[in-house]
Amino acid sequence: MKTSAFIIFIVIVLVVYGLVNSYIFIRGLQAVPSGSAWKIWYIAGFWGVAFTFVLARFMERAYPCGFTGVVTWIGSFWLAFMLYFILIALFIDFARVLNHFFHIFPQSFYADYQKTKLIALLSSIAIVTIVVVAGFINARTPMIRKLELHVGKVVDGSKSLKIVMASDIHLGTIIAKRKANKLVEAINDLHPDIVLFAGDVVDEDLAPVIKNNLGANLMQIKSKLGVFAITGNHEYIGGTEPAVKYLREHGITVLRDTSLLINQQFYLVGREDRDRSRFTGKSRKELSELMQQVDRSKPVILLDHQPFNLERSVEQGVDLQLSGHTHHGQLWPFNYITTAIYQISSGYRLIGNTHFYVSNGFGTWGPPVRLGNRPEIVQIVITFN
After folding, report:
1. What would the pLDDT profile of 224-236 be if each residue is shown by its tens digit?
2. Which residue, among 353, 359, 355, 383, has the nearest Cα to 373 in the 3D structure?
3. N or C: fewer beta carbons within 10 Å in the chain?
4. What ranges make up the beta strands (E) of 152-277?
């Protein structure tokens, strides 16, 4: 990404972040009695927490340590709190507008209006806290999703293939040892023939991955035919070459615009992430080019992190495409946005003769919270003629 474009992007993000927090802050401040001793605590506490996310983005790169981890956790949680505080504030303001025209609130509502506002503030904090805690528990309890497919091709020496697939693991400060252990244990319990990671294996910064020695966890994965991965947009955000080098050093074969014949039985095609051009100025190869050396009489499995232009996979005779990236919104109501953007935001679909699966992902980006969908590891059993 060009420096000027990156600076503009960061400025826009910071402006939007500042405006949203300012709106929440002002609406909350109006509920605190003017003479209350809590007012100064509210001001200091709010902005102290709100700035932790911005601070953590710089500290993770410059000074990875235990304190940085604490700041990152606080800042990440605040993103979830911020989302649901803004939704509640907008809902309350919408109700006030309706009341202005239709008088939906009883007169007792205004008997002690300052007290009513304080109750609304405390109720909002309680509701959002419950919602975020529930989302945190949900994010820490991934499910095993199982899928059975048939590919009408003959495979010498095999009638089936057991794939275990995960995407968007986001190894780093938030997804660290405990979650990495859970990932490896769940994969090994499924006894896969092959393990496939559909991008964003590591988060934006490699330093926490190295510090926590998460590569050692990845090396514990047991798979008959190996562990394969592709790049996602987050590998590019954090620095693709160091991330790929680290993964390869820890037992993962990273496919970068590569087609590979596995065990003389089926092809595995791994694409670079579509954001490669945005970060490097160089485009990834077209799928048609990658398929030139592929014998289409054999099953073809494609890994492509972002599920765009699905019709090209159908046209090229891909049998199964595995993707991630969407997180299916991760936090409600963002799932409505991803559903509008992507032809498949989550789950399975057959288009033509091509099977597609888009995973919700195993990890999280930003807040370690999921609402409206479950994190998952996917077991896919393919049977052949």
Report:
1. 999 999 999 999 9
2. 359
3. C
4. 160-166, 194-197, 227-229, 253-254, 258-262, 266-270
For residue 343, the enclosing domain spans: 144-384
What does the alpha-carbon distance between residue 304 and residue 260 come to, in Å, rounded to a whole number? 14
Q: Which CATH number characterizes residue 376's domain?
A: 3.60.21.10
Short-list 362, 361, 326, 72, CA closest to 217: 362
Reference 52, options 76, 85, 84; nearest CA is 76
DSSP letter at 362 equals S
- 152 and 134 housed in the same domain: no
- Chain centroid offset of residue 305 CA: 11
Residue-wise pLDDT tens digits, 29-83: 999 988 888 899 999 999 999 999 988 888 877 777 778 889 999 999 999 999 9
Per-residue pLDDT tens digits for 120-139: 999 999 999 999 999 999 99
Q: What angle do CA 369, 76, 227 make, to 5 degrees?
A: 65
Do the beta carbons of residue 200 and residue 237 sit within 8 Å? no
Whether residue 133 sits in one domain with residue 187: no
Structure tokens at 66: 């235990």
Q: Of 110, 138, 166, at which residue does a domain stop?
A: 138
Residue type, 187: I
* Pairwise CA distance, residues 76 & 203, whole Å: 13
Number of folded domains that form the chain: 2
How many whole angstroms separate alpha carbon 25 and alpha carbon 92? 14
